[in-house]
Amino acid sequence: FQTLHGRRDGIALKPDPTSANLIIDDLGLPPGEIAMLGDTEVDLQTAAEAGMLGVAVSWGFRTVDVLLETGCDILLEEPLALIERLG
């Protein structure tokens, strides 16, 4: 991970893309080259609002069906799949 942002005073909560946009600024990359991993609809909505790649993980809070219905660019079924995708 190059940068991480959590909840901050004065920054709107997800799905508002403000925090994601700060990450984009920190990295200095086009949003489409940045992956946001998440396990909820809100995470995927945030990624979409910021123009990031939405990567859903199936081992979190929501079912695969919910994640697919929300829309994701990539669905990972296990943690090691992330390493395989990056390799």
Task: Map the helices and strands.
Elements (H helix, E strand, L loop, with lengths): L17 H10 L7 E4 L2 H10 L2 E5 L6 H7 L3 E3 L3 H7 L1
Parallel strand pairs: 1-2, 2-3
Q: Provide a count of the helices.
A: 4
Order of strands, widest sheet: 1-2-3
* Residues in helices, as a percent range: 25-40%
| N-to-C span | 15 Å
Describe this structure as you would to a colleague.
With 87 residues, the protein is α/β, with parallel strands linked by helices. 39% of the residues lie in helices and 14% in strands. It has helices at residues 18-27, 41-50, 64-70, 80-86, and strands spanning 35-38, 53-57, 74-76. The protein has a 3-stranded parallel sheet, with helices on one face. The longest helix is centred in the first third of the chain and has 10 residues, at 18-27. The radius of gyration is 13 Å and the shape is globular. The chain starts with 17 loop residues before the first helix and ends with a helix. The mean pLDDT is 94.
